[in-house]
Amino acid sequence: MEELKPCPFCGGENLKIEDGYADCGCWVECCTCGANNPFRHGTHSEAFAAWNTRAKDKESEILLSALEQIGKGDVPVNGVSGLKFIANNALDEIKALKASK
Predict the structure, then answer these.
(1) What are phi and psi for residue 67, nearest 5 degrees?
(2) Whole-model pTM above 0.70?
(3) How many helices and strands in the chain, by DSSP H and E?
């Protein structure tokens, strides 16, 4: 069986496989933050594959860059308009990335 990636939300590595109640499938859950795959799967392998699925790397980099910019207070305009500016720039980059494929 494949190895599970850390939790995409908190980075936690304390993960467990949950078998559903009343035959509702199985899923992976993070024991640190409680995140879990919202869909139930018929096999452990399917649940592991779903848990290990991540956003496309380049899109993640763009979003992470925008969040880091906000976190550092590196906002070109104060308040909500500055946050919208950063978010819109990130969205424009992602749209251009998708259009180029």
Answers:
(1) -65, -40
(2) no
(3) 3, 2
Please classify residue 18 by burial: count the beta carbons closer than 10 Å to its beta carbon, then call 0-12 exposed, 13-18 middle and 19+ buried: middle
Q: What is the pLDDT along the chain (101 residues), one digit of tens a residue?
A: 679 999 988 889 999 988 866 567 888 999 999 998 877 888 888 889 888 887 666 777 787 788 787 777 777 666 677 777 888 888 888 888 778 76
Which H or E run contains 99? Answer: helix 79-99
- Name the residue with tokens 């452990």: 44
CA 73 to chain centre: 23
Q: Distance between CA 42 and CA 24 in Å, rounded?
A: 8
Distance CA 48, CA 62 (A): 26
